[in-house]
Amino acid sequence: MMVFILLACLGGVLVGLSRQLNGRLSISTTPLIASFWNHAVGFAVLTCLGLFVGGLLPAGAAEAPWYIYLGGPIGVIFVAAGSWAIARIGAVNAALLIIGGQMVTGVAFDYLSAVPTSFWANATGIVLIVGGMIVSRRRRKTGGSQ
């Protein structure tokens, strides 16, 4: 179990590093160029890894529904938007915005797909996320900690 926890932590560090690099590259160039290089390097690394480990094209990939492949274009938009946001609002605020958006969208998807959930637990989670973002913004506007 400890190996998986360490891998998850390593993944989080690498995602944070990637966002910082994309944000910095976005400042030097444009968000679209930063997104291009993010995807070009990711494609090259994952292709080499797939060729080395095997399973680059899994069985049944051709029979998958078309909408399964929308993740790529959505990822391009997400990375470009993240590069743009980091350059304007900072890495911490961009991370808070992304995490908050993912949590609220996950709750919305649960309701749309009729997954049995607890309304009060979801409502409390959303209120805490939004409240934390408001407190963070208010604290920054007043000049730091009080």
Automatic annotation (TrEMBL):
Record has Membrane as a keyword: yes
InterPro entries: YdcZ (IPR006750)
GO cellular component, as recorded: plasma membrane
Swiss-Prot/TrEMBL keywords: Membrane, Transmembrane, Transmembrane helix
Transmembrane segments: 36-59, 66-99, 119-136
Superkingdom of source: Bacteria
Pfam family, one: DMT_YdcZ
The UniProt record lists the keyword Secreted: no
Name of the protein: EamA-like transporter family protein
Organism whose genome encodes this protein: Rhizobium leguminosarum bv. trifolii
Lineage of the organism: Bacteria, Pseudomonadati, Pseudomonadota, Alphaproteobacteria, Hyphomicrobiales
